Amino acid sequence: KAGVTQTPRYLIKTRGQQVTLSCSPISGHRSVSWYQQTPGQGLQFLFEYFSETQRNKGNFPGRFSGRQFSNSRSEMNVSTLELGDSALYLCASTGTRDSYGYTFGSGTRLTVV
Amino acid sequence: DAKTTQPPSMDCAEGRAANLPCNHSTISGNEYVYWYRQIHSQGPQYIIHGLKNNETNEMASLIITEDRKSSTLILPHATLRDTAVYYCIVNSGGSNYKLTFGKGTLLTVNP
Fold it and tell me: Which residues of A touch B97 (CB under 8 A)?
């Protein structure tokens, strides 16, 4: 079956701009999570959505937002980009049973210049 | 903060078993132990998880101590493609819907 699809794979933006990243989960998965990975901070949780509702949010500023659509696809948006937002952004999906593992996408590499 | 402790790096010879330890002394009764790995610049890959009993799948085996305060991931016949950062995570799943990653163990498989 198809995996988690993230688009675009690479993105270069200028400071102050905004960006929208997209994630299509595995078919049937209703939970979608987002993570930021940087060399300094490692993998950090951004937020998680289930049935279009945000159930948990990590410790990130309000410039980071997300949403989930009725087909479970999700987007995350970062406004007023800063140099420190340069990172690999990863999306993960999981089925409804709590003990299932998460399947990650390959990520979107965002570079802010 | 991550609730697990792992060695920062380990080496293993190709074809030998790789045994990756993880301490999780504050694990709660309803928390599972998960293992993921991340090959450079790719998304983490789920390997295996367990609650109390030892588990085995096509990728690896997971040995959890009886007191559940530590576990070991075993890759029975390591290959060069197993070189990656391995993360041990404890997660109850039901209440917080997130994975808390630590720094993991960089496993280098040498020819």
Answer: 31, 33, 48, 50, 55-56
